[in-house]
Amino acid sequence: MINEKVIIAGFGGQGVMLMGQILSYCATEKDVNTLWFPSYGPETRGGTANCSVTISEEYVNSPVISTPDSIIIMNKPSLAKFQPKLKQGGLCFVNSSLVIDEAYRDDVTIYQVPANDLALQLGNLKVANMVMLGAYLAITKIFTFDDVISVLEHKFTGTKAKLIDINRQALEVGKNAVIQ
């Protein structure tokens, strides 16, 4: 049974909202209940941003996630804010390119993914979010990469269609960063 509550957080402009939207769109495509709830800081680009995504076979009755099953953290301030809320035994995916030498809880599983560094190796820093999403999907197996690519094909049309291939590569790189 699917029942996943995830918080995705980082600076504005890091693709945090897109990751959440993709997960929600994938759930919708699979005919699973979902709720995506964005939260922006005072500045859009460069300020803090986070979103909550609930994916469940049961009815989703609230956008508020007080104890997430997983968190995807793109920057240091987001780790400080959301790591304490993560449920015991939860999954914490951290962009280790920007979050360095931090204290992590010992009752959760930490996946350190150098998302910015890996995205730069692909030639486009903007796909760091897809690197993180690839890592998350590789571990949780909540959706397949094909599910994500299908959503991207609907979302990225016209001139943005050329971005699908690099996003596919970024998903794979993210998977390879956490699967040995």
From TrEMBL:
GO terms for molecular function: oxidoreductase activity, acting on the aldehyde or oxo group of donors, iron-sulfur protein as acceptor. It holds the Pfam family POR. Residues 12-174 form the Pyruvate/ketoisovalerate oxidoreductase catalytic domain. SUPFAM superfamilies: Pyruvate-ferredoxin oxidoreductase, PFOR, domain III. Keywords: Oxidoreductase. InterPro entries: 2-oxoglutarate_synth_KorC, PorC_KorC, Pyrv/ketoisovalerate_OxRed_cat, Pyrv_flavodox_OxRed_cen. It comes from the Bacteria. This is 2-oxoacid:ferredoxin oxidoreductase subunit gamma. It comes from Candidatus Xianfuyuplasma coldseepsis.
